[in-house]
Amino acid sequence: MDWSFVENMLEGIVGLSLGNIVMIAVGGILVYLAIAKEYEPVLLLPIGFGAILANIPATGLTESGGLLHLLKIAGIDNELFPSLVFIGVGAMTDFGPLLENPKLMLLGAAAQFGIFGTLLVATLMGFTINEAASIGIIGSADGPTSIYVASVLAPNLLGPIAVAAYSYMSLVPIIQPPVMRLLTTKEERRIKMRYTSRPVSHMTRVLFPITVTLITGLIAPKATPLIGMLMFGNLLREALVVDRLNKAAQNELANIVTIFLGIAVGSSMIAEYFLTWRTIGILVMGLVAFALDTAGGLILGRIFMALSGHKINPLIGASGISAFPMSARVVHRVGLEEDFSNFLLMHAMGSNTAGQIASVMAGGAVLALLAG
Asked: How many whole angstroms separate alpha carbon 266 and alpha carbon 161?
């Protein structure tokens, strides 16, 4: 009888700590939420399974040379996976509503308030400035950006930050409406905005990603890897001459990289690092960041409303976060609840796409200040 099999099995069972059991259960919960509740399943499912794999003892998966360790080195430590994911995101994003109404870019910028507000709160809670900045980036409502910044500034917090970012993105329909109702009146939410489609030329659509990349590279160089890949994906979409590459970016590339990214992030959820009071603090701060982002966008939305003579519905400011297109749909739904004939979706889409760009710029600004 081959006793090595028995020895390996006993080694695994004996090495299974309470922390490992808890984290395997956490991974199982993430898988459950992804399948049963459809909470960001594309990433929560591989993250959850990666957490399960990482907490099985004696596998060597997370040790030097192990599969999960190699994935982390290949795609997370050098920021490769988040950057590649953004090619697919860019290919799937239509910036047309933003180009039709460029002033909506300001709403995207205002909705990043939660990043810096949470950073200040986190420093008061005892986190280092790098850790606090990484926690604040959860407020970007952009998973790849959160992972990108955390992997540079606070790799020890990558697991809880990624879980918080994607969990709260899936909970946007629950988080945002109460803040919207708190900061706006019923009459303001019922404001109808006229939508007049302004044709955007093909040339403008092509020049937009190139221009944004150049401006970002000059203003916030640290954001260039992410914004550059986002804009490259969008260029593939708008060029209209590389349909095969466009489809590959939206499908094969995005899907393959997302799988590896999720499993690699999940592998960082090892019990000894994840099961701490700091993790609970990060989850709480992530929720605060989303709420503050929503509030920041709404406040500027109300200013726009006042300046326009009540022709702009302040709700569209809430979609200035980067949770695209979910936040725009939530704004549209809240508007419909007050008046079933109030259609805000296209206006909210413009603000939402602006938030995508602004969130990456904010991440680059934080890296420029702290990473040198």
From this structure: 11
- Answer for the pair 157, 150: CB distance below 8 angstroms, yes or no: yes
pTM recorded for the entire structure: 0.86
- Distance from the Cα of residue 164 to its chain's centroid: 10
Q: How many domains does the chain have?
A: 1
CB-based contact 177:319 (threshold 8 Å): no
For residue 52, the Cα-to-chain-centroid distance in whole angstroms is: 23
Measured distance CA(55)–CA(299) in Å, rounded: 44
pLDDT tens figures, 322-355: 888 789 999 999 999 998 888 898 889 989 999 9
Contacts of 254 (CB under 8 A, 6+ apart): 85, 87, 88, 89, 91, 92
Cα 315 to the chain's mean position, in Å? 21
The closest alpha carbon to 328, from 50, 147, 141, 58, belongs to 141
| Residue 84 identity | L
Print the domain residue range for 63. 3-370
**Helix (H) or strand (E) run with residue 52 in it:** helix 41-54
